[in-house]
Amino acid sequence: MIRIENVTKRFGAREAVRGVSLHLPRGTLCGLVGPDGAGKTTLLRMVAGVLAPTAGSITVGGARGYMPQRFSLYEDCTVEENMTLFGTLQGLRGKDLPQRSQELLRRYDLLPFRDRLAGRLSGGMKQKLALSAALLSEPEVLILDEPGTGVDPLSRREIWRALHGMHREGRTIVVATPSMDEAQLCSFLVFLSRGRVRERGTPGEICAAYPWTVLRVVGPERRDLREVLAACPCEECHAFGAAWHLAVRDEESARRALEEALARFGIEGYEISRVPPSLEDVFVFREEE
Fold it and tell me: What strands lie across the sheet with 2-11, from one edge to the other?
């Protein structure tokens, strides 16, 4: 459905995407994960046909719908006017356009707001309107750039529920996300860093390939344990909310060193447990390679 062959994109002397090759079969819900500047938006825009690659080729086997990161509809037009305009640009005519527009506005709870200016919608409603506009022509491939960023939790949940519904129907979806929670919802993941693919596979495959054992340290109070953890043999150490994750080679010796360090600093009540690696563990590991 989507074939990307050795694609590079340069802006002057800067390479935003470097030699990326991917094959996404029909029905894939692919998450592009990476920090700011990783090349996610540039790669999505090339898949959407908005940008041309500097080198390499991209083949998309079906009509495309594209939802950019920034709200790109007209804020001084109403919800309904935006749908009519974008439907016309997508080639819808006659009764098909109002019927399709009304169907989508009803599906995403926007029908009561069809006469409201788009600029007066909340962030979540703007994202749902942009998604509705992208779906007007019923594209086989949907491309979305961080649809859950900057919206309230309920709207974010609604957007992802909609994506999963379309995924179950067999639509191919490529979505950029900075969130590991959202990445976990995808059927296939691609980690980008500095324009290159660093990891790819299902969430389970990616976590299973993590080379270290992860120990979780959590206690009755939230405190900075960096000085304590520095005395322990570990490959990586990161705070995860109120807990700490240590990536270790030898679980037994790491546990012993950690218990001794906590005792030496007079810290009590902390529990040490082995946990499966999370996508965030893998992501941090790949970024620091």
Answer: 14-24, 2-11, 55-60
